[in-house]
Request: fold
Amino acid sequence: MELLKKDNAVNIFVCKVPKEINYVDYMCIVNGISHRHMNALAQYVRRVYKMKRNSDDGVPKIEGKDSNDWLALDLGKFKEICF
Reply:
């Protein structure tokens, strides 16, 4: 969360997802102050992920680039990054 706070993210919400939902362990939901800010946050998280990932992990794609309302990143099994 500290990385996102430093980049002025607002309303940061992190939750652990119940084990019954097999495809995700945690979700992090963040608001930005504008579409440009949301895009910058997504690029920042992606850059940090690329630096800390394992060599066999793929690079997450930013989904929703054409939307003015949302963006999404799937960081897969990557658990070492701390927000």
